[in-house]
Design brief:
about 900 residues, 33 helices, 5 domains, hydrolase, six-stranded parallel β-sheet, DUF3670, seven-stranded parallel β-sheet
Length: about 900
Amino acid sequence: MTSRVSPFMKNLILSFDSMDDGFTTVHAYNDEGMRLFTEQWISFLSFQHEPSFYGLHHDEETRFSTLELVELFSPLVKHPYVHVSGYAQEDESTITTIQQAADLWSAPTLWNDIEFEEGSLVLTTEEVTPDAKVMLTSAIQQKLYGAGLTMADIPTLLPFFKQGGWPLQAQSGHTDVNVALRLSEPESFSDEWLLETVVRGKKSSVHWTPAFRKKESPIADALPDKWKIHAPYVYETQANMLELMNIEADTDRFLSRTLSDLDVRHFLRDDAARLQALGFEVILPGWLKAVKESKLRVKSNAKTASFKTTAGLNEILTFDWHFSLNGQAITEDQFKQMVEENREYIRAGNEWFRIDSHWMHEIRQLMEQTESEDWTVKELLFRELPDALVLDEDNLEEEEDPLFQFELNQSLQKYLEQLQDKKGLPTTNVSPHLLTELRPYQQQGFDWLVFMREQGFGVCLADDMGLGKTVQLIAYLLHVHRTKQTDKPSFIICPTSVLGNWQKELARFAPDLDVHVHYGQTRSKDESMASELISMKPDVVLTTFGTASQDAEALSEIEWASVTLDEAQNIKNMHTKQSRAIRKLRGEHHLALTGTPVENRLSELWAIFDFIYKGYLGSFRKFQENFIAPIERDESENHKQKLRNKIRPFLLRRTKQDPDLLLNLPDKQEQREYCPLTTEQAALYESLIQETLFKLETLTGFEKKGLILKMLSKLKQLCNHPALYLKEGFGEAEYMMERSEKLAQIVTLAAEIAERGEQCLIFTQYIGMGHLLQHCLSELHDIDPPFLTGSMPKAQRDRLVEAFQEKEFPVFILSLKAGGTGLNLTAANHVLHADRWWNPAVENQATDRAYRIGQTRFVHVHKFVTIGTIEEKIDKLLADKQALSEDLIQSSQWITELADDDLKELLTLG
């Protein structure tokens, strides 16, 4: 590292990490090598950088685009008393590259050294490194795109840039007058538009143009006396605008010329956009600013000759098209003629209106597609019409006569609605080899899985935990492998914790299936794996997510009859090696099983759908623009509904509360067990809060979130027991119980449950709490409860689960992450949550280890909450978060994104 250069200079030691998406993450360190919080250094780097509001845009994470890096190191922005050095040698090289690009960025000679060849910028100077050239040209492109310009605009802009129009910035204007271009619509009985230069005083709203007799006079002569002093400014501004336009005109006189309909379209598409991007004012008719205020209506009716069976999904659709202009019907030929003539501005009576030419061409293209591509019912069901053709649902109630209507004949519409609702599907006979009876809703799920396989569509079975996703899949596997549909094996990938459960369930319900477990150190790998499968010819291959990731290359070479992910949320982080590897597997049919399709972010939903039906939700970047941003940032109900409709055909979700399922499960009661803090806990709690609130006042963004999450974990451990917070060893059990009312209540309740001959599960997030519970139950009540954690070997887990189900011990302590999914623990009729999770879906999954099919007794759920603390306040907020989770669309704006006042209220000890 480099030491400080001068006692008068602030030294920033930076490290740079290039990301796959083109951005660069920057971190800063002090002279001792300690990493700094963002707010400690970002203002020095963004000293005069107005686009980022002087660093405020980087309150969450310090990711910079190439453009931002170049601008930040530009002499126009750089802090005069800040010296920048690299954390390592490669960081020094990066700084040198950025600095070279930045020095040229604002140099007056920059555009003399740039050539435009085949649509690309080429930097001819030899004074900088190749890396700096790449960085500079990339920054220029980003600057242009950000202003709404493209590389195609470069030839026209070159003279402007060479005369000082670079870097792009808003035009400074004049203190007394404003110069603009104004486009006026044609007068009555005319089809000529008028484009002219207009002037107005800064304090006036009226635009001035020269009188008719002065239109041919030089600018200085035509101007009123009060403005003649500003003639050079008016002349220069108009000359700059004309130079940027594809219009030939005399720069000495005020512009006043007529345009045709086609000229106007070119002006709006090219010239006006370019001028506005460069800061010049363009005045357009008010009605012209509304892109789709069209009086042209299009209606299409789709129908088939007959539609009676599912085979009809492959029937060809026919379309009848109807058009009206300003309420008057026009023929299809007239419409096509309007499209061919590129008509865009039409007068109907005394009213001018615009027909979006691009929109009309899309309609015409859709018509041609329906004529040439022979759309089937199946294609229409899953085809996404262009947004431009569909009325915005926000305006559905206000707009009784939409621009575009797509209608289906009654019988077809009814059938497609049944298909969307998973009703009326053909019934598939359950294999006699299935050693159980399917409940009616499970039969429906099985029918749906088979139907979707036959249609070639992947699926996401998202039933609530405990409703029998496993048995529905086993019925599906028996159908696939016992009706001689395939000679390829099916592949199931699951968490390690439930691998044994899958073995037992398959052996229990479908012993006729030949199951091979691909797991452990002795498993075959690489080429031997494929040859082993050929010789063994298993029906089903079982493995874990970790093993599938390790053996990804060999597994991806095998063509599977089906690939199923159990607890599919394990691939939710799409950028991880595990997620990418599993999404590359090749199966005739892809299935995802999950009780929580969306735990925190919509990106998880995209990852699951990228596995089951690759390409359906588009690229992640497109999905981000179309759904994630408007839903997670703007809470757009319209986009939520649009996404629900889009995923609905591929997702089957039923909950235990659904009355149609007729589950007849025993009752479940949830109750809060409230515990006060001890004096010791309260003092430690108050001290931690005050210390944290003081730090929060100096932090913003990513560091603030990190501190909050760290503090939340400490608070939850403190609410459990001060020894966990202070990282102390365990003393005598009675003394440990005196220090925490919560610990005392949990231990006492568990002992009472055991004494009555009942069984209970205790869930905790913290290993220390689990060991503390074991310590107290053993010492005080002679109960030795096992503690299932993520580090426990699979064989040991399986033995413990089986022993608990056989009632060999009454109390079972489980880590929430390791024991919260996949396990069947219906021997328990009490569930104790020692500490609260921030996501209610996770708690519900844990509860469902006991409250699931097979449970015959009343289930009592005890949620321990420490009074007056963050636990009690979070408990109230969880009700709102539960509603989001059940809505399938869940925002990520949770505890770390609360406003400061709300956060303080949440943390204050009640």
